[in-house]
Amino acid sequence: MTSEITAIPTPGHTPGSMSLAVVSSGERAYIMGDVFHGPAQVTEPEWVFSFDAEPVVAAQTRTGMLERSESENATLAICHHSGFGKVMRAEGRRYCLGI
Question: Which sequence ranges are marked TM in the entry (predicted)?
């Protein structure tokens, strides 16, 4: 799209699902589109939404994006809830801490 915004495949919810990776001034963010449908899916990414076209793939995508964003200290924009946040861990579980 641009040197700072890249479309990335995030399959599972609907065919052809994409999200956006944004890199600017050394910071990274992911605009997640339809990857997450509620706050519980950050803590329990294997929980499926009834409208996920490919539930197993959707859960794998959620897990992968959580791992990626956590390892990169990236900001997540979770469109259906939470807004902007960072993936944090407490007692071995992931949460999205709003910023």
Answer: none
pTM to 2 decimals? 0.90
Domain extents in the chain: 5-98
Q: What is the pLDDT along the chain (99 residues), one digit of tens a residue?
A: 688 999 999 999 999 999 999 999 999 999 998 999 888 899 999 998 888 999 999 999 999 999 999 999 999 998 877 789 999 999 989 988 888
Which single residue is written with the structure tokens 């469109």?
A: 79
Q: Where are the alpha helices (DSSP H) in the chain?
A: 40-43, 55-72
Looking at domain 5-98, its CATH architecture is: 4-Layer Sandwich (3.60)
